[in-house]
Amino acid sequence: MKGIITVLGKDKVGIIAKICIFLSENGINILDISQTIVQGYFNMLMIVDMEKSAIGLDEVFAGLKKLEEEIGVEIKLQREDIFDSMHRI
Amino acid sequence: MISRNEILETNKMIQEENLDVRTITMGISLLDCADSDIDRFNEKVYKKITTCAKDLVKVGEQLEKEFGIPIVNKRISVTPIAIAAAGCKADSYVSVAKTLDRAAKEVGVNFIGGFSALVHKGCTESDRVLIDSIPEALSVTDVVCSSVNIGTSRNGLDMDAVRRMGEVIKETAEQSKDRGCIGCAKLVVFCNAVEDNPFMAGAFHGVGGKDCVINVGVSGPGVVKRALEECRGADFETLCETIKKTAFKITRVGQLVAQEASKRLGVPFGIIDLSLAPTPAIGDSIAEIFQEMGLEQAGAPGTTAALAILNDNVKKGGVMASSYVGGLSGAFIPVSEDNGMIEATKLGALTLEKLEAMTCVCSVGLDMIAIPGDTSAATISGIIADEAAIGMVNNKTTAVRLIPVIGKGVGEMVEFGGLLGYAPIMPVNTFSCEGFIGRGGRIPAPIHSFKN
Hints:
heterodimer, A: alpha+beta, Alpha-Beta Plaits, four-stranded antiparallel beta sheet, 3 helices, B: alpha/beta, Anaerobic Ribonucleotide-triphosphate Reductase Large Chain, 2 domains, twelve-stranded mixed beta sheet, two-stranded antiparallel sheet, 14 strands, 44% helix, 18% strand
């Protein structure tokens, strides 16, 4: 399963690092990553491959939730299917 | 691979424009619960519902989390109780309504529909018992919804049932008058009722379907309004294309959720209902779409045409996005649940007669309209007859969900709370139709129904 992670919040040091460490520790591979900063606001999109994830989906959600509180930014993980069905025939 | 802009567009629809899946409704057949003893029947009904739907809410919540889109309601529809309970030979079905209420609360759904009777060609004894039980059933339960089909294009209208439903609506209001007459908000009178409608209060599980199915209702007035903001002043071709494309996207999400829910629950997928259903939230209003289309207020001249355009293009866009489209697939304009409609009513822009005209093109009916508490039962029956005649002659579903607010008059407000919203009481034409409604009997099927 592929997932889309979106991160939004005030820019600070180590946002990407912390998220990437969490993903790599759990066997989740990053396929694509893009990031912009608009008026001090950090905005990142990541496409990840969760096929070989060492933990279940619920645990990934829980882990990201923890990171969200720790870093103080909004982190959202969604299955890629919702974007595919909306934008691809 | 999906692009950055596409991801942002989808998430903007969800976060800022109230895109959601309005309801996942599990249809459950109760035909195999039939029993001559009503207590045993109730037991079987409770067991069947709590078994079939035990994971419905859990799966719904899991999908919300995984796709990141709200699934607002998880609901159940059952076989019309007048059919399922016909073998009981009881003189009241209130205990069945209580059983439905208990089962629905046990599995955590917010409404259960199917306390219903199909009497378009006359009443059986069981239909009569059910209709007589409606006022009490809706006042002693919280989440049970009731509907009665009083006509079809193939069969004409059963005017005895029309007359009776006027009285039943009044009695229902009377029995729940301490709670804003909320019983009536859970009661719909239909012409051409459909068997796979996932939306309340009119949902029931038709006898022509499988034992258990998943039907999904999509929505997104806010998304359509936002899309139309991008084409202000453009011609009708651009307007229609924009609505179509938006409806396609909205429906694809519904289709995805429906298929996934069906897979996880091990229950076949029934249909997607392509309806634009508003909520009382700001920015989730059909009336605001009319304003975006260029009308000062809903109800202004041009509103019927605007609604025709809106709904036709929602269907054109949605049909290709889903493998099975069904249900009502029309525009719901429950007045109390749509902020813009409430505003238009307060300003006097929107009248009962204009709402009736709108039902000729595609609106599903006179929905969630508060009327003065002293409106007579015959007048309510007259309104039902008019609405049903529109449905019968135009081969479409029409419905009436009126709330005579006991003790209140025109201009006063009534509050239902939650999704049901609040409404200003609308004036009703006070000239009598007593002699017409009092005739009794049936209105024969219209000439164009003889198609064989």
